[in-house]
Amino acid sequence: MQILRSIFLILFLGALPCQGQFADFGKNKVQYFPFTWQKMATPHFDLYFYPEEAELAGYAATMAEEKFIDLERKFGHAVQRRVPLILYSSHLYFEQTNIIPSLLPEGVAGFTEFLKGRVALPLSSSLPEFERVLHHELVHVFMYDRISQVLRRRGIVEHRAGPLWFSEGLAEYWSGEMDPFGDMILRDALFSGQLASLPQMFQIEGTYQMYKEGQSICAYLAGTYGEQIFDRLFENWWLDEDFDQILKLCTGHTLEELDEAWQRDLRLRYLGDVAKSDPPGKQGKALTTTGFNLRPAVVPGDSVQFVFFSNRQGYTCIARADLAGGRPRVVVEGERTADFESFHPMSTRPAVSADGRWLAFVAKRKGQDNLYVWDLRQEREVHRFEFADLVALASPAFSPDGGQLVFSGTDRGGFADLYTMEVESGRLKQLTGDLYHDRDPAWSPDGQWLAFSSDRGEKGRQGRYHLFLWHLNRGQLLPLTQGGQSETEPAWDPAGKRLAYRADDGGIYNLKIAQVEMGEDGARFAPLQLTRVLGGAFDPAWLPDGKGLLYTGYEKGGFQIYRLAVPEADSAVWESAPSVAGWTLQGAAEPYARMDYRRKMSLDVAQSQISQDPLFGTSGGIQLGVSDVLGNDQYYFIFSHISGSQTGFFDGLNLAFSRVHLGRRVNFAWGGFHLNDRYTSLYGRFVREKRTGAFVDLSYPFSRFKRVDVELSLRQSDIDRQFEGQRLTGWLMTNSLSFTHDSSMWVLTGPLAGTRYSFGVGQTVDFKTSRRFNLNFTGDYRQYLRLGQRNCLALRLMGRHSRGEVPEYVSMGGSWTLRGYPWRSLGGRNLALANAELRFPLMDRLVVSLPIGDIDLSTFRGAFFVDGGNAWDGQFGSWKGSLGGGIRLGLGGVFVFRLDGTRRTDFKSIGKNTHWDFFFGWDF
């Protein structure tokens, strides 16, 4: 995606003098795997897929048509256009999509893009969950189309989207019932005081809690007013731009009244859970308190320890701690390098061998998951395994002797099965192979059995998981549990007689233990309830003595690790294991036509603008952007004209064209331009410049964090520097090379942790004579040192040097460089700048009460800083500096209000005047 930024700079700002002050930072979206796309046409969808996921495409075609019919009935509306549906067999592939330019977090299960009405989603191993997400996204398609139809009918051109909690909440409500995880989030938020009211829903905008609150509110509306309430809302959408007023019109109640009734209904729903449950802290001892900590794995030894995933330092890492207490320490750092880009803490767990020496874990590396074996004694990597046919891996477990690992692996078609692997040789063996989602394998202490969870049971079609046993020598599959609840995350006790596991009986995640007996004819088990928590309990891990275990508990919006004693087994009440009764899915009901993908371009953006300047005259122009349905090929066109004192029409004409290709590992762009511009130089002097030429840009991302960029342009240039009495003409070739790294972690106001740096070199030469016009060197290094959970020391060193007959001049001063000095007040062909800034929280929330209503402001942060630097031509001169403090208020996106008060200094004395800088933009 970085190449797009360069293209826009070239096309939109290409006639301006190069400033070179700020490196083009940002993480990379890397196309690790090129896909051979195909298209399937169903009655209502154009479905795009690649051959490896052909089976998934067949299932998706049937699902999509079924959901289309369902939503036609619910909306009372038919979508007339064909819906583009783009499928990915893994979330790791989904993250490469160019349909939208932004990076996709792991929590994004799919999206609907409204500009072209495209729906894109991955299969995350579970077909029932895939079906639910597809249903969710199609609700967005119908909602957008229905609202647009109502507005067009009333002659309203602009689209009115409505609040996000309603659109996402309705999509959740109409795509399935509230699941136990959603109940957990709502129940905990309600009784911990973290539930957002309807008027304050913006405080949790875009979060999972917002989705679940929205779903609950829509369920309440349907239960109170009937399903027809949604039809009334859509039919009256045109009446007001304020959704609150439309809601009041259709229900007869204000937003505050509806909120009070909904929260009362929610309390009644969960009141029974409170009476029979306790917080995790009352049913065990908390071993962690700071950040999110989950998925414990016990490390046996003289002093029992445990490893777990933790984000207490911001980035997710694998940490290690003693049961007796003490500060956890980092074992493996994550999310900063290509080798450990992500640990997937919400979908996988680490494992430790029986002797406590070896740690096994999964990490994303260069586009696919790798399996790592780590020496806990020497604290180093011992093995790394990458499998050509497996994209995603999850939840490894050691054999009793530590010589093998078992794990869940997802193939390129999107289906997750169980595999074993020899640690020394890496030899792989597949155990299961079907459409079911097999997960959470655990190796029995006698080495003969695997316990795992799967949706292959009778209720699996409804998304339920149950426990199964697999005999490794006989290849025998034995079911253990059945019913309408789910059981997952089995863990054997040290004696191999009992299983601890998670179950959601009654809609609450709790832990159970069960005695298990296996035989050739089947298995039986005797379950016992272990916890009754109000939030949720996950990830049981037995202690070496078999008298206790560790688990992850959810409370007050966070995950922490707890220790719990396990009672002695009472007289067993044995239950017979059910028979294996699987389910099937119907593929495409008809042999829908399949064809190779052919690019078809359509409009992305078209905008025009006219402006008037007393010095430069009137200017106007139009910008067009088109792309294919996958977003891999993009074309941009610009036409503009600047009137004034030119001798003819063509003196003010600007034309530009570019083609960008993002479908391969190397992103490239090329294009041409004819630019006529007049501008004021850095010193306030008038310059005319004409450029006609072409350019080629290449960007090669080594990983999400590092890339190299190459830019080459050839242009016929005519620069009239009237203030110097000279005119520069000729064919100029400019080429540049830069290397960029960005592993920063952000909060609303700017970076809080990590590192960013960029170094580059470029030159401009006369193409005919090889005479060098200028040679430029740039460097920008930024380090963000985390000081506790919410504080940061931000450091920046930046330099620039330009030499040659026509050096490029840079400027400095203002809120983003040297504070306390006017914007661009310092300039020259050399620049040096150093900044140090202490960032800290000031206030998490401020409510301003006004007669028209309350204004809720959040994310107030403070800063103390020292700046120093200079810009010069000949001699450096003396350091110019400033020191001061300021506040930042994050309003969303680039809208960060910054107010700085500074005093200048020469580092010998401090000035007496305070200078105030107002600015909108992120911290450096």
Summarize the structure.
With about 900 residues, this protein is an alpha+beta fold. Helix content is about 15%, strand content about 45%. It folds into five domains: about 35-160, Zincin-like (2-Layer Sandwich), CATH 3.30.2010.30; about 160-275, no CATH class; about 295-575, Neuraminidase, CATH 2.120.10.30; about 605-740; about 790-924, no CATH class.
What secondary-structure arrangement, pairings included, does this model have?
Blueprint lengths: L1 H12 L24 E4 L3 E5 L4 H22 L7 E6 L2 H4 L16 E3 L4 E5 L4 H27 L10 H12 L4 H12 L16 H18 L2 H8 L7 H9 L3 H22 L8 E2 L6 E7 L5 E9 L1 E8 L6 E5 L17 E2 L5 E8 L2 E8 L4 E6 L4 E9 L5 E8 L4 E7 L5 E3 L7 E6 L5 E6 L11 E6 L4 E4 L7 E6 L5 E6 L6 E10 L2 E8 L6 E7 L5 E8 L2 E8 L9 E2 L17 E3 L5 E12 L3 E11 L5 E10 L10 E9 L5 E14 L5 E16 L4 E16 L4 E17 L2 E3 L2 E17 L5 E16 L3 E13 L6 E3 L13 E3 L1 E21 L2 E20 L7 E11 L5 E10 L9 E6 L4
Parallel strand pairs: 2-3, 3-5
Antiparallel strand pairs: 1-2, 1-31, 4-5, 6-29, 7-8, 8-9, 9-10, 11-12, 12-13, 13-14, 15-16, 16-17, 17-18, 19-20, 20-21, 21-22, 23-24, 24-25, 25-26, 26-30, 27-28, 28-29, 32-33, 33-34, 34-35, 35-36, 36-37, 37-38, 38-39, 39-41, 40-41, 41-42, 42-43, 43-46, 44-45, 46-47, 47-48, 48-49, 49-50
Helix pairs in contact: 2-4, 4-5, 5-7
